[in-house]
Amino acid sequence: MGSLEELWLVRHGESVGNLAATGAEVAGAEAIELADRDADVPLSATGIAQARALAAPLLAATERPQIAWLSPYLRAQQTFALSVENGPAIDQVLTDERLRDRELGILDLLTWRGVAARHPEEAARRARLGKYYHRPPGGESWADVALRLRSFLHDTADADARVGLVVAHDAVVMLLISLLTGMDEPHLMKFAASNTVLNASVTRLRVEEGRWQLVDFSDVRHLAELGADITVHPGSPDVQPA
C-alpha cells in the first residue's frame, strides 16, 4: 500500500435504516419499512451525535489522517462531514463507489423471517454455500465485495499520505481487515461471528515489521467519554442467524 502506514476504518453513525431493520427484527416482521433507497438513508438523531463525537479521536491522534476515502452513501458522507465540522481538516477527501455497502438484491429490505417465507430457496442456497460465497439474485456475496475492495486497496498505493481514513459500512470494515491481515474465509467468518463493528467506531490497522496488524477494533471510547449512545445494529441478516 505504498507510503500508507496506518489506516483508520470508521463505520457510519446509527442510521434511520439501522433503526428500521432492528425494529423489524424485534417485531418479528418479514419486511423492513423504509422509504429511502439504501444510498439515501440518512443518520438518525443518535447517529448525528455519534458522528460529531468522532472529532475527539481525530483531534487526539498523534498523527492524524491526511487523506480520507468515503462511501458514496449518505450515512457515510454525513458521518464524515459531522466528524470534521469541529475537528481537524483533512487534506484530501475522495468518494469511492467501491466502498458502498453490500448489495442484497432481491433480499433487500427483508428480515431473515422474510427471506425464509418469501425466498426459501435462497435461504437453502445460503445454508449450503455459506455467508461468504452466497450471492442473492441481483446482489453481492461477501466475496464480491472483497473483489472490489482489493481494487480499492490497489489504488491506495498512490496515496501521498502516511495515515488514511475510510468511512464506510460494517461489511466493508470487516472485509478490509481480512484483506489487509490475510484472513481466509474460515478465520473471517469466525471473527465476524464473535465481533460486531459498532456505529461510529474506529478500527485501526498499522504496518508493523512489514505486515498490516490490527491495533484497535471497533473502538468507541470517544462515544462513552462524550455521552453519545453506543449502538450495535449488526448488518441486516439475510437468513436466520446460526
Key features?
alpha/beta, 6-stranded mixed β-sheet, 242 residues
Can you give me a brief rundown of this structure?
This protein is an alpha/beta fold.
Please outline the helices and strands.
Elements: E1 6-11, H1 16-27, H2 45-53, H3 55-60, E2 67-70, H4 74-83, E3 92-95, H5 112-118, H6 120-129, H7 142-155, E4 163-168, H8 170-181, H9 185-194, E5 202-208, E6 211-219, H10 221-226
Parallel strand pairs: 1-4, 2-3, 2-4
Antiparallel strand pairs: 1-5, 5-6
Describe this structure in words.
There is one protein chain. The chain has 242 residues and is an alpha/beta fold. A hairpin with a 2-residue loop joins strand 5 (202-208) and strand 6 (211-219). It is built from 10 helices and 6 strands; from the N terminus they run E-H-H-H-E-H-E-H-H-H-E-H-H-E-E-H. The mean pLDDT is 94.
